[in-house]
Fold this protein.
Amino acid sequence: MSKQEKRTEIADLGEFGLIDHIKKQFDNKNSTTLKGIGDDAAVIGTDGDKQILLSTDMLLEGIHFDLTYMPLKHLGYKAVVVNLSDIAAMNAIPQQITVSLALSNRFSLEAVDELYQGINLACKKYNVDLIGGDTTSSRGGLAISITAIGQAKKEDIVYRNTAKEHDILCVTGDLGAAFVGLQILEREKEVFLTAPTAQPELGDHQYAIGRQLKPECRTDVIEELAKAGVIPTAMIDISDGLASEIMHICTQSNLGAIIFEEHLPIVDNVQNAAVTKMNFSPLTCILNGGEDYELLFTISQADYKKIEKHPDINFIGYMKDVSFGRKLQMKSEQIVDITAQGWQHF
Ligand code: ADP
Ligand code: MG
């Protein structure tokens, strides 16, 4: 929690006072936002014949985030970004969000303001409008649920189940850093709990920690693909780790796949930290780490030339017949099965 000097109880404003206070901090930017906060329901318009996309995620304190190292402002930002990432993964641009909160009396108005500062930063960066939500009290801890809404033409929407054999598997950005960042933060928390005056050793790990605390989603790549005239054949965002997302595309498209270790993107500094500080194989961080919020997509071979020089798109393998299975070719040329664990919340 932050070291704000002033502490205003939410009970002093009441629920309506709080909603009004939040509303004042937000401006609507999209012409499709016809009615935002303030009535029984928000109203959204559509541009032409577009279809509406909608995605919801719920984050619970102690399960999905830990406020000992996650500042509320970062939490607000991240909670928005992970939802926008789901809309981007359908090849659409998000335009609106709703935010629902359950707050215990441990949270002051100043704490809620920090959370909404992060939410507002993400809304500005990604040009989305906050159009509603719900506010309720909780017996313990913080819960935050965000719904993101976007729209796209029917023929532009990309699903997980439409990849084709021989399509090229592409991944944006780099992988594994958010997981390494989380391990570093967890380790520093242990040190802090046993020796509260110890100085954290975060210096070399700014990038990995930043990827964990303040992830971005790839609406930029969605726009660039559109400009290049490329509609992916299938797409998913990488929230649970590359292995699990490849499994989803393969299972839903009824295909197999091969990926090549030498083409998997990881930042040198992150790779070194994984090996030297944590004894993790970089491959484990890439395949099973998660929270990268990059995009995994497939394109037809005919589209390769259109994006081959894109600096942020990596070509990591291709789709095979289902009988091939899901395989990774190591740098040693050994071929192994890809296993996906996903996140274990339960
Ligand atoms: P109702 O009782 O009809 O559900 P509320 O009093 O909960 O209405 O909400 C009033 C308005 O404020 C609605 O537009 C709602 O979407 C919005 N709202 C409520 N809580 C939040 C919040 N935490 N963030 C943003 N908007 C909110
Ligand atoms: Mg309500």
